[in-house]
Fold these 3 entries.
Entry 1:
Amino acid sequence: VNQIYPQQGWNEIDPEDVWTKFQSVFKLALENADADVSDVKVFGLSTQRGSFVTWDKRTG
């Protein structure tokens, strides 16, 4: 995931970039496991430090 430095001493990550890369890795993991997305009951996504992003449960 690419890091963004909006000013000296600050460090951010783009949530869209995190989500896009997560989807790619998730798809590859399913392919390597010869599994289907319906086999997955839950997944976790974690970032470092105090990062957060708001999530709309209707639109994702």
Entry 2:
Amino acid sequence: MDVKSAFLNGYIKEEVYVEQPPGFEDFENPNHVYKLRKALYGLKQAPRSWYKRLSEFLVRKGFSRGKVNSTLFIKSSNEDKLYVQIYVDDIIFGSTNPMLCKEFSKIMQEEFEMSMMGELTYFLGLQVKQTKDKIFIHQSKYCNDFLKKFKMLDYKDAATPMATNCYLDLDDNGKNVDQKIYRGMIGSLLYHTANRPDIMHSVCLCARFHSTPKESHLTAVKRILKYLKGTKGLGLWYPSGTNIFLTSYSNSDFGGCKLDRKNTSGTCHLLGSSLISWHSKKQACVALSTTEAEYIAAGSCCAQSLWIKSQLEDYVVNIDDILIYSKSREEHAGHLRIVVEIRREHQLFGKRSKCEFLLDEVQFLGHVIFAQGISLDPAKVEAVLKWERST
């Protein structure tokens, strides 16, 4: 559903005055101004006042805010749940009981002027196809639109988003290209990574050179576009009835950036068999070894896993064990310190959580407790510390 003229519904506390608009002049007092009681589009207070008006209304109707996401509202009715997600004036909602959806639509139409869109098929550029046992999310329309915008529809398809031997640098002697076009391509591609993890690394790599793009950089970006041209129909597939467990993977290169020799971390997180989160990001420091690079990647992966776990609690999905896989055997010793440091930096995770780090032949289970640090099984810790010497 969509709220018509959403920002005009918010009330403002600050004193804001506007000139008399054409057609609404007071001819007896032509030099007077109007004092606003409600927000207008263009005011910096408008988004906040609209959110306050909407959230207060929903709370009065029995909703509660999400613990992590303040734009998520939840209402319980016996065994059923109604979830409402707000994005400015666009609202999506769903429930295990269709009657709760009908009741929500009714109270919203009574309070605000609404446009009902029916079953969710399109949201913020994402196309959603729902069936009884699965949901498929893709951006084929959005992809086709920006391919047409950048005149790439007639190009030959590429098999991969990036060549295996592609090592981009500043290319100081290269030919300059139009910054506006290059940045437009990067911006479109970054939004497209919302449901295309296969282009995440290549897009983020090309984005590093948006300040002074060269012809070599543009060639790499065009290869991504040619790859997308042949794979427009790809998207994310979410089947129903899968087991709910959280699995995370982390990886890192070593000295991959030619400019500063920093490494790039990559992580992905699966709920059951479905991919729900991913990222590719250059690390903030220079690692002295592959072990250190993998350690940094595993640390960020752990932090994201704990955030996802907290988010899932709003959906009554309680995750006890988080499995984090990393490729390097050497990093097992560093894992003993990861959870402690993550807990020190991210104090918002107040409940006990268990992080189980699995390697090929070693595993340990740590109980992270709110303020007391970490409590580990001594036998498992000893096995991990001696693993390298015992092989």
Entry 3:
Amino acid sequence: MNEIKALKRSNGKWCYNEETLRTEAILCFQNLYTLEAHASGLFSVQMKFPFIETSLLNCIVRNLTSKEVRDALLEMAPLKASGADGLHAQFYQSQWSILGESLVSIVLKVFEGGSVDPFLNRTLIMLISKVRSELISQFRSISLCTVPYKVLSKMLVN
């Protein structure tokens, strides 16, 4: 398991205390992902959007099929990062005969105007390091979503 054992704090001193490291990380990413007061507010968009041809519009608003759900799942890398539930795409792919109907039902309900179940939207945020990181700001966050959520996203893109 990867661990962050020490970080250089903003004052230039090294910190080895686990609780202080945790606090530093939380503060760093809260500051990064919090809107500042002066940045909020509405802005006007003054541009014309392109006309969508009827044939393309019909393609976009059509009903989706269980085959498309299965195809989206099978296009996923089997062992890429798992989500909060710990399951990889390979589990869903190999157990399609058992889980397929349920997964199709969940996905199609969302596309028919339903809401995304909060369990599906549970996401782990992990820190990764691209360089030898001394500062918390040198880590990048990635989101690890559940496979059903990834299927939903993939179908939107497709």
